[in-house]
Design brief:
The protein has about 400 residues and is mainly alpha-helical. It has helices at about 145-165, 170-190, 200-215, 220-235, 245-270, 275-300, 315-335, 340-370, 385-405, and strands spanning about 305, 310-315. The relative contact order is 0.08.
Length: about 400
């Protein structure tokens, strides 16, 4: 007695059409607890590991993955298995197949890790068990590296005091170099706003302005500013009318802010007989104001002075600045020029207020431009303009007050 052919009455042997060969092991792409056929079209797999296309209700292939004939009336759901055989044993339990090999394999979906493109900050390296993370130098509440700031401050102080003590005329190249660097930093910073002030006429005019103030006095200082602005305007005409007003406005701001205000330092230092004492009294007053404000702000600062401009400045720090400058200037002016202590205290208060206003003015400019420091030229300080901001507003105030308190005798 012959057994019925499971494939029906279709031809056998060489006359039988080709059908897919069934392998006894599962495919790589599996659904949780079921078989699924690998997509035939497209070079990429589906992005969602649980998403599969709906099965064709009338597949072109007359045989399924087991080699059994597929009738046209068979229906498939979205999981690619027969709906009519729900009460039948699961296909994995078919005794005709090695169940230990065909047990359902649950695919573990590993979330894609998005590679980071951000670079580690300078000086940092990846930590591991045998290599700890690099220790960074703390900045403290002041927001800067205090040892580096003190070292750079002492170096700048020596660069100022040594020429004034031994050869005052050598202080003029120091002022000129500071003006040139300050102009370069300002021009570099304002380019973030889209303005492109011409650098060559600004530096040349700034050095000329300081030299005229040293040798010819206040009138020549104003003349140097006028020459700088006109020279910048003529230079800028060669680049065409596009952005002319914007570039000229930025150039005028730089010419007034850096070389014109720095020219008053040249006027102070160029005074006969006691010019070096005048500039030293002014600079010491600014240093006392900065130091007193720093100490009081770090120790007692609770109430912000101008949070929208400089969040770290407090009214307690401002009080410390004024008190330190007033006390120190009262003693200095009495020792240097024999001025009454109350007039010296008034001088210190005025210099301190001007220094704080200068610091706030540059903070407002940097916040408007979106920069933290004008440059990274000086470790612990930022740029040179970050140190000159207080001095640039203090030297005109000191020049006017000393002209009244200590008249210059020609």
């Amino acid at each position: 007695m012959s057994h019925p052919d499971p494939y029906g009455s279709e031809p056998r042997g060489w006359d039988r059409p080709e059908r897919p060969v069934v392998l006894p092991w599962p495919e790589q792409e599996l659904e949780a607890g079921q078989w699924s056929r690998r997509p035939a079209a497209g070079p990429e797999l589906y992005a969602d590991p649980h998403a599969r296309p709906y099965a064709d209700p009338h597949p072109a292939d007359p045989y399924d993955e087991r080699g059994r004939p597929v009738r046209p009336d068979d229906r498939f759901d979205d999981r690619d298995r027969h709906v009519d055989d729900r009460n039948q044993p699961d296909r994995y339990d078919d005794p005709g197949y090695p169940t230990e090999q065909l047990a359902p394999i649950r695919a573990e979906v590993v979330p894609d890790e998005t590679p980071t493109t951000a670079r580690r900050s300078k000086g940092r390296r990846r930590a591991s068990l045998d290599r700890p993370a690099t220790q960074q130098v703390g900045t403290g509440r002041a927001g800067r590296n205090l040892p580096a700031a003190i070292g750079v401050g002492l170096g700048l102080g020596a660069l100022i005091v040594v020429p004034l003590a031994f050869y005052p005329l050598a202080f003029l190249p120091v002022i000129a170099a500071a003006v040139a660097i300050g102009i370069w930093e300002m021009a570099r910073a304002v380019r973030r706003s889209g303005a492109h002030p011409p650098l060559v006429p600004l530096i040349a005019g700034g050095v000329l302005t300081v030299g005229l103030a040293w040798y010819a006095g206040p009138d020549a200082l104003s003349l140097g500013l006028l020459v700088t602005v006109l020279g910048t305007m003529i230079w800028r005409l060669g680049d065409g009318p596009a952005g002319f007003q914007r570039d000229l406005t930025a150039a005028t701001l730089i010419a007034v802010y850096v070389p014109f205000l720095a020219g008053f330092a040249a006027l102070l230092a160029a005074a006969p007989d006691d010019g070096h004492l005048r500039i030293l009294a002014t600079l010491i007053g600014v240093v006392l104001s900065d130091t007193g404000g720093y100490a009081a702000g770090v120790s007692f600062g609770r109430h912000p002075m101008a949070p929208s401009i400089s969040p770290k400045k407090s009214w307690e720090g401002f009080a410390g600045s004024v008190a330190a400058a007033a006390l120190g200037s009262a003693v200095l002016l009495w020792l240097m020029f024999e001025v009454a202590p109350w007039w010296g205290a008034l001088f210190g208060v005025a210099v301190s207020c001007a220094a704080v206003l200068g610091d706030l003015a540059e903070s407002m400019i940097k916040r408007d431009l979106g920069v933290k420091d004008m440059s990274n030229l000086l470790p612990g300080h930022g740029g040179l303009m970050d140190r000159l901001d207080s001095i640039l507003f203090a030297v005109p105030t000191a020049y006017l007050l000393l002209a009244v308190l200590v008249p210059v005798v020609n």
